[in-house]
Amino acid sequence: MASLSGISSRTPLALFFFFCCCCCFAATASAQLSSSFYNASCPNALPIIQSAVKAAVAKERRMGASLLRLHFHDCFVQGCDGSVLLDDTSSFTGEKTAGPNNNSLRGFDVVDAIKSKLESACNQVVSCADILAVAARDSVVALGGPSWTVQLGRRDSTTASFSSANSDIPRPDFNLTDLISAFSNKGLATTDMVALSGAHTVGQARCTTFRARIYNDTDIDSSLAASLRSSCPRRLDPHRIRHLLLQEPVEQQGAPALGPAVARRRLHRLASELLRRELGQVLR
Ligand code: HEM
Ligand SMILES: *[C@@H]1O[C@H](CO)[C@@H](O)[C@H](O)[C@H]1NC(C)=O
Ligand SMILES: *[C@@H]1O[C@H](CO)[C@@H](O)[C@H](O)[C@H]1NC(C)=O
Ligand SMILES: *[C@@H]1O[C@H](CO)[C@@H](O)[C@H](O)[C@H]1NC(C)=O
Ligand SMILES: *[C@@H]1O[C@H](CO)[C@@H](O)[C@H](O)[C@H]1NC(C)=O
Prior knowledge:
Elements: E1 3-4, H1 13-29, H2 45-59, H3 62-75, H4 108-121, H5 128-142, H6 162-168, H7 176-184, H8 190-197, E2 205-206, H9 207-216, H10 222-229, H11 238-246, H12 260-283
Antiparallel strand pairs: 1-2
Helix pairs in contact: 1-8, 2-4, 2-5, 3-5, 9-10, 11-12
Bound molecules: protoporphyrin IX containing FE and 2-acetamido-2-deoxy-beta-D-glucopyranose (4 copies).
């Protein structure tokens, strides 16, 4: 995946605000949730999730960001009910291929691994929606951010909504008015929207999601826009493609001389690899 550090920097400040707002997600959900929900039925639930998240983030830091975003995309579509995890069935098309999610959401394999560990420890007790909520918190902690208490006891949905995922998750081309209303539709205030946006302190974005902003818009920090432009080309440059195709294969030091057929094959492979990378960056 040709992803770029469009949203980067590491200040944990914004994560602090994220913490404050997490309570809002929970508050709109329900009053009978409880942080000790699994104390008797699955006492190791939280340590199991925490150690799996820690390991996943140690292996790849970005995974912390990806798990945090999964919780957000779950919650914005008919509540925090695990529906984002459901694959398509004959009776519904799930949320995984909706615009904001397709080729973008990550971390499903980490969640699956946590779920199977929890099933071994306590069969059919811990909901997937709760796993996402706890994993989001544990991710922020593993990345060096603050902690908070997660209310538990969410129930998993048996259905999902492709169309709500498309309509309810805010889009990258939204203006301020659009953003405020997308959050207001979920019972969240403007201050919640601003604070929760601090989640973008961590993680990455694909060129395709911010290209229009960095070439067209004037309401963006100009040096940030300039630095992003250097890694997110405006469009496919025919000269660049030609250059890629003409590039010579790099020989290993000490490698035996190659016959022309082998050299041509290598050249072809190298060119198509570079081209694929370039195309991926521009077209995604
Ligand atoms: C305010 C409205 C929001 C918009 C328009 C928005 C949009 C986006 C976009 C376009 C990306 C990049 C996706 C890609 O290139 O594949 C992204 C990434 C991300 N978003 Fe948001 N987002 C918003 C709010 C949030 C919230 C509330 C959270 C969590 C609390 C969040 C967490 C993240 C994270 C952590 C990433 C990086 C994921 C990774 O590296 O895998 N976002 N967001
Ligand atoms: C639930 O377990 C946690 C962690 O072991 C403990 O701190 C908390 O006091 C327990 N709560 C109840 C209501 O038993
Ligand atoms: C999701 O992405 C795949 C792979 O890029 C693509 O083939 C498919 O059409 C996309 N699905 C939707 C619903 O856009
Ligand atoms: C925001 O965008 C919407 C369309 O998405 C448009 O109708 C509205 O006029 C815009 N508002 C501002 C203040 O730019
Ligand atoms: C800039 O905006 C125009 C008009 O909205 C759009 O057609 C064009 O693709 C945008 N440029 C980039 C680089 O996205």
